[in-house]
Design brief:
Radius of gyration: 18 Å
Shape: globular
Mean pLDDT: 86
Order of helices and strands: EHEHEHEHEHEEEEHEHHEE
Distance between the termini: 43 Å
């Protein structure tokens, strides 16, 4: 049973959404603000967090920033209806997905299940093979799906589930272009629609993380109007 943390200052949302998630078989913990959630997360992390952005004491952006200092736990943001800035900023700070308020609770459940499936896909199925058989090496890049680990030139790089899947898809076939639609299919389930901006935001953050290990990192190339390509030196 996956444990979901729901963080929102709207008690009606906490009550109704937690009842829906529990009916779907999830274990749910609710928090009224970011600080309360952070205090609990410092003791034990859930499997996933659903965060409202605008909250008292500590908002969702601040909470995500602190979480990303120690964990790549999947995170979904609840954003304002028309605030695209919140969506882009949240993705660039390391959120895996977002859902706009007001939202269908069925949609939120689908997004949660999709993200958990993506997390499982990164590790792959336990098929009895040697862990080393699952490791992918492309030049200076080393990816180990079973351990959810990435290294560039021997330096560890911590990626979210979405970032890992995007890098893996690009690096599997160096020199071949992946369109944004193809990358959406890799990172999201068919029933989940996202726009081009979402993929671009994830790629920008992915590049930023890789450049933290190597300022000269340039393996991910943008082909404007087409998509992205991984170039192996």
């Amino acid at each position: 049973m996956s444990k979901i943390a729901l963080v929102d200052d709207d008690r009606n949302i906490l009550t109704s959404v937690s009842m829906t998630l529990e009916a779907e078989g999830f274990e749910v913990e609710t928090y009224n603000d970011g600080q309360q959630a952070l205090d609990a997360f410092n003791k034990k992390l859930p499997d996933m967090a659903v965060l409202d952005i605008k909250m008292p004491r500590m908002d969702g952006m601040d909470l995500l920033q602190r979480l990303r200092q120690k964990t790549q736990m999947p995170v979904i943001f609840l954003t304002s209806k028309d605030d695209e800035i919140d969506e882009v900023l949240g993705l660039r700070m390391g959120a895996d997905d977002y859902v706009k308020k007001p939202f269908s609770q069925r949609l939120l459940v689908e997004r949660i299940r999709a993200l958990l499936r993506r997390q499982e896909a990164v590790a792959g199925d336990a098929d009895g093979t040697s862990p080393e058989a699952n490791v992918m090496e492309r030049g200076d890049l080393r990816m180990d799906p079973l351990r959810h680990s990435v290294a560039w030139k021997g330096k560890d790089v911590s990626l979210t589930v979405t970032e890992f899947l995007l890098l893996q898809a690009l690096a599997q076939r160096p020199g071949f272009v992946k369109s944004r639609d193809q990358l959406m299919d890799v990172a999201y389930d068919d029933q989940v629609y996202v726009d081009d901006r979402t993929i671009d935001s994830h790629i920008k953050r992915l590049r930023k993380k890789m450049r933290s290990a190597d300022p000269d990192f340039s393996a991910i190339e943008t082909l404007y109007g087409i998509g992205y390509r991984y170039n192996e030196d």
